Amino acid sequence: MADLPLLHQHPSSTELLAALEGLATTPPSWTNTAESDVPEDGALSTTRYLTSIVASKLSWIAADSAREAIWAMASMPAITRTFTVPSRHDAAPIEIQLHEPSLTADDLGLKTWAASYVLARRLHALAAVPHLVRPGLRGLELGAGTGLVGIAAAAVWGARMQLTDLARIVPNLARNVHANERVIRAAGGQATASLLDWKQEAAPGSDGERYDVVLLADLLYAAEHAPLLCETIRRWLKKDDGRAWVALAVPLREADVGALVEFKAGMERAGLSILTQGEEEAYDDWEEGPRHGRRRPVRCWWAVWTRTSSMSASTPTGI
Known about the structure:
The chain is α/β, with parallel strands linked by helices. Helix content is 31%, strand content 19%. It has nine helices and nine strands. The chain has helices at 13-21, 42-55, 64-74, 114-126, 148-157, 170-179, 181-186, 225-236, 257-269, and strands spanning 79-85, 94-100, 138-141, 160-165, 190-195, 213-217, 245-251, 273-282, 298-306. A seven-stranded mixed β-sheet has the order 5-4-3-6-7-9-8. Strands 1-2 form a two-stranded antiparallel sheet. Helix 1 (13-21) runs parallel beside helix 3, helix 2 packs antiparallel against helix 3 and helix 4 (114-126) packs parallel to helix 5. The two termini are 40 Å apart.
C-alpha cells in the first residue's frame, strides 16, 4: 500500500489507473468487537483505498472520461459479510449476514457504515430502559441501506420492523432481510423492506400505521436531510403514545455539525426531548487515518428522544 498514489497529492489519471491495474482485492470483513477492529490487514487497506477513490470527486482530473474510468476500476466487487451484535438476557451474540453489491460512486447507500454498527450494538442496552422496548413493538428504519440496524432490532428485540430506503436500494435491502429471516424469527420478530422517499407522503407500510420507534443512522451527511428527516419522523411516529421514541447514531464529522444542530432543534420543535445519549468509536472500510495501513476510529454520537421527559431523571446518560 505504501507505493499507491495518495489522493491528497492529486495524482494524475495515468498514475491512478496504473496503480488500480495492479491491485487485487479479497472480500473485506469487520470483526465482532471494537477492540478487535484495530488490527490491519492488506485486504482492508486495499478496500479503504478503493472506497476513498469511489467517494472522491477527483476534481483535479479534468477529463470526464478519465474520472469515469478510475471510478469503474475502483468499484469493489459484491461481497457478503457477517456482523455480530449483542443479544438480550446474556444470550449468545446474534450474527447478521449482509450482502453489499459492487460499490460505485452512485450507490454509497449500499455500503454498511460505522454509525449503523454503533446503533446496532446498542440495541440490547436500550431494551433495558423502562418503557422503550415492549411486546409487539412496531418500528420504522429510515435510510436503512444494507439493513443492519433494522434487522438487528427485529432479531434483538423481537420487534416488527419496517426497513425503508430509496428505490435503487430496496432490492438489496429486501435480499438482506430474507437472508436473516431465521435469526429474526428465532426472536419472534418480523422485518420487511419497502420504498420511502422522505420528500413524498406515501406510506412505508400498506396500512399507513404509525410506529412506536423510528431508527436512523448516518443520515445527516447532507444539509437538506435535517428538515426532511424531522418532518418524516413527525409524520410516522405515534403521536398519542407517550412511550413513542426515536434512536439515532451519526458520525461526528465537522462538515455535518450544522445539520446535526438543525436536526436537534427540529426534534425539539416536534415535542421530542433527549432521554439518553453517548459517544462510541467504531471502524469502517473508509480510509480515515493519515497513513495508509492504519485506521482512525470513527467517533459517533447516539441519542434517544421521547415524547415525554418524565423518564429523563431516572435514566442515566450513556446506558
